[in-house]
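From the methods appendix. Each design record in this collection lists the tokenized structure first, followed by the designed amino acid sequence. Records were kept in a plain field format so they could be parsed without special tools. The example shown here is representative of the layout used throughout.

RECORD:
FOLD TOKENS (117 positions):
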């Protein structure tokens, strides 16, 4: 006779279908990185590709397949600083925080304020 132990299996070391299903569900659910981790990963990986340090992450949201983040990058530094050219990049990450795609969605001067919508 097999008896379930604390480790989620049986005393003889085998697993029951119920234990395996429960453990697999927990493992899959735990794969998605947190929003703060997704923000850091988006900025880090974009910096590796562009060779420029991001200034900030202005948005992050979950998607069906992972995360989407908007990252602000200084593209051209000018004096005075308010005339420096900035860019917004949209970064797509998978559930584990790995970069899948990115695109520049906007260029603007640092001192520019978005009009009210």
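DESIGN:
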């Amino acid at each position: 006779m097999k008896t379930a132990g604390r480790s989620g299996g049986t005393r003889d070391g085998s697993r029951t279908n119920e234990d395996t299903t429960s453990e697999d569900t927990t493992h899959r659910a735990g794969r998605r990185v947190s929003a703060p981790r997704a923000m850091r990963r988006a900025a880090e990986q974009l910096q590796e590709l562009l060779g420029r340090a991001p200034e900030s992450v202005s948005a992050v949201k979950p998607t069906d397949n992972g995360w989407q983040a908007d990252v602000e990058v200084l593209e051209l530094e000018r004096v005075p600083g308010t005339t420096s050219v900035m860019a917004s990049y949209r970064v797509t990450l998978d559930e584990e925080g790995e970069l899948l795609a990115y695109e520049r969605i906007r260029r603007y001067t640092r001192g520019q304020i978005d009009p009210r919508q």
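APPENDIX NOTE: Confidence is low (pLDDT under 50) at residues 1-12, 14-28.
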